Each structure stands twice: as structure tokens, then as C-alpha cells.
Amino acid sequence: xxxxxxxxxxxxxxxxxxxxxxxxxxxxxxxxxxxxxxxxxxxxxxxxxxxxxxxxxxxxxxxxxxxxxxxxxxxxxxxxxxxxxxxxxxxxxxxxxxxxxxxxxxxxxxxxxxxxxxxxxxxxxxxxxxxxxxxxxxxxxxxxxxxxxxxxxxxxxxxxxxxxxxxxxxxxxxxxxxxxxxxxxxxxxxxxxxxxxxxxxxxxxxxxxxxxxxxxxxxxxxxxxxxxxxxxxxxxxxxxxxxxxxxxxxxxxxxxxxxxxxxxxxxxxxxxxxxxxxxxxxxx
Length: 284
Known about the structure:
By secondary structure, the protein is an alpha/beta fold. The chain is built from twelve helices and 13 strands. α1 crosses α7.
């Protein structure tokens, strides 16, 4: 059997390829990347590196030839661009005769009101419409997404949040990668995996950070407008502000409060605790 991972030089893709190679052997793994030269280290390991550019659909058709199981890692960018790119990959997969399509989605994609959900919902529907067996890995939230705040707090600041009592199923990106790689190797994977860790509030995450830092961390709770102003005052680019305030609002609305045992089942162990995850990120 031959597996192929798209976006294999990105942060998540790199980790998935590593774990998949460990499980099935380098000779059974292929990757499609926009810049083949950036994947030279994978070529050196004996991994089949192919040119595949989401903005050049013809390259995807060639890259997916002879592939049994494909993982489409969702791209970055504005919604319309991502949907177009994902559709190109899905079409290419069907034309190439791929036997199973995996996709990295978001928590509760089919019903979520999260601002990022529509891209994933449309892509999931496009994959389902092919009639090809599929497996959706609905990722909750990387703990690494909070690293900027964690580092700011480590330098003495309070924990700034506009997320209220909203809960999140945080986990380390490497754990998502391991769970996804494992799911792709199962003989009969589930169609949908909700990869959510234990649910925690921002206050609980702040407490975990305080434990690692060995000092109390105060919670600075503000409304969305104030949060945006604080981010702007901190020097973040204006184009990022709506996204950041939107994420806080989505968390407050409970869009990431998805409970599931799928993550633990794929890992074969509990998800790393918040405290240990923060300790790993801060290297303490």
C-alpha cells in the first residue's frame, strides 16, 4: 500500500510524515510538495517526493497517481482560495483513482458556527460526493496556537482573554500528527475522528502556565473590542486583529467544546496534560 501526504513540508505535515514513516516504512510513503527542493531531506530518507501545487491542478493529478491512501492537509489563506484549492485536490484524487481520502478538518465541522468551519464543511462535502471512502480528522486546537500568549505571560504579563468560560480541547500538534498517522494506517478507520483533548477554559490554561512558571498568573478578562485594541497596541498587524478577536469569540461561543474519546483511542494513551504540554513548549 502507498500513502501520500500533501503539504508535507509544513509544521503538521512534517510531523505526520515522520510518524507515518515510522509505522509503515519510508518506501511506502510519498509526499506532494510545491517546492521539491525543500523536501530534499525526505528524498534522502527514501521517501517518494512528488511535485504537487494546489494552484496547478494538473500537477496534483500526476502526484496522486498510484496512491492508495491520500491525506489532504488543509491549506492556508482566505476562505475562497482554500475551498478552490481543496476542490482541485479532491477532483485530482478521484481522477487518479485514490482508494481513500483523508482530510484535516476542524472540530464538529458539519455543524460548527466557528469562523473557520465553512471551508472545512464544504471540503468534507466535496470529498463525500466523490463516493470514495474517506476519513476526516477533525482537529480541535493546537496548544501551540497559544504559544504567543504563553511566552508573553512568561515574561511577566497577565493572561489576556476575551473567551469567557468557553472551553477548548487543546493538545500538542505532534499528538495530532501521531493520531492522524495512526488513523491512516488502520485497516478499517472510522469515517470521522473528533480529535479533541480534555476540555479546559482559558482560566485553567492560565493556571497550568502558572504552575510551570511557579508563580500565580492573573486572568485579564476583557470584551472582544478591548482584546482587539490590546492586540493592536502590542504591535500585531491590523489584518490579524479580526481573526484573533474572532477566535476568542468562537471559543466563548463554545464552538471548540467538543467531547470525544477518539483522540485517546488513536494515541493508545491519554492526551498530554495542559501543564506538561506547557512545560514542553517552554522547555522547562
